Amino acid sequence: MRTSSVKGAQVQAGRRGTRGTRSRPNREIRDSSIPGLQNQRNLNAGAPTGWQRCNIHGMDVAGRQPEADSIELYATISTWMDADIIEANVRNCFENGCSKVFILDNASMDRTVEVALAAGATLWETYTTEYYNEDLRIRKQNEIIEKVTKAEKHKILWWMTLDADEFCAGHNGERVIDTLQKLPEQISTVGSICIDLYPTPGNPYILGRHPAACFTHGIKRVEGCRMYCSLGHYKHIYFKQTDGLFNVAQTRGNHSLATPGKATLLEPDYTLQFFHAPYRRYEETFTRLQALCDKNAAGRHRSMGDDECTGNHGAIKRWRGVQHLYAGEFDKVEMPHSQIYGRQVVGIAVYPWRVLAPSLAGMFPKSD
């Protein structure tokens, strides 16, 4: 495979696109059994019926009194054919202060569940779908949060909702639980952006390790877009339940939150960062994307409903560009979810992640 060279602080890459054009959903999908736009409700997919997407605003937390009570931190991780990354993710959750990690598995065909359990996680449910169904996934994730919150009745219970390839980190690299413990009681969520990690020549993924300890380069995912909150955060994967009450739930993609009635939630006036590793070793990554995006004899593929929702900006883009990425041809790689720019973006420039997220650099010394 051809590879491009890493020069200094940057892997050179081109950027092409047509301004003013948006990718349109696949309007040929008509079968109601395929999840797609029919169960997408104004970016509120997955929230309990009748709940409303809430407003999220920042609050200056400097000098404010932190929570008086100790907190609990639990995590849910959604998985599908993630045996190569799930061990490292579960371990990272525990290292960041989680006392419980629940796995919601979409009938993985590999050893995902076995590996997760061996790492100390608890399997909540394995469910089977013919197509990837984000609405159903979020609903099941919210069910975990509701049932555990009501059953255990903790005074302060923080939840962390992750995909299998998302690795949490606290403020300036401290443990997540330590960051949350310092917040005043008015805070109900914490916003974050992600650093997408990319394999580059000479930096392969090593099974069981945190991907940021393996990969050196990446990109900073969309920052400053105020679609989800006033501070321009990309996701809200941390949120709080109190006194055993279930009154905050996730929506599609864990980007925003919903409440029983229209509400405004407060978050700290800073941004947390987390690592996202959608590409790991070539063999496992190719197999997973092929099972998700390659068409069968009937011309259908597992992710087609979700592709319809995103306007073909999600997994299908990774599938189309997987060969280019592992060949180091970054100028030919499409940027996933670039619809936010109003156009297709072909060609990405990756930088050392320690430059993109200097506050996290101390977590993984270069000698690791």
Task: Give an overview in words.
21% of the residues lie in helices and 21% in strands. Mean pLDDT is 87; it is low at 1-27. The chain has helices at 86-95, 112-118, 134-152, 176-181, 282-293, 304-310, 315-326, 353-356, and strands at residues 6-7, 10-11, 52-53, 55-59, 72-79, 100-105, 122-126, 156-163, 166-167, 189-198, 217-220, 235-242, 249-250, 257-259, 264-268, 272-276, 351-352. Strands 5, 6, 7, 8, 9, 10, 11, 12, 16 and 17 form a ten-stranded mixed beta sheet that branches. The chain has a three-stranded antiparallel beta sheet with strand order 3-14-13. α5 (282-293) packs antiparallel against α7 (315-326). It starts with 5 loop residues before the first strand and ends in a 12-residue tail after the last helix. β6 (100-105), α2 (112-118) and β7 (122-126) form a beta-alpha-beta unit. It has two domains: 6-26 and 281-359, no CATH class; 41-276, Spore Coat Polysaccharide Biosynthesis Protein SpsA, Chain A, CATH 3.90.550. The longest helix is centred in the middle third of the chain and has 19 residues, at 134-152.
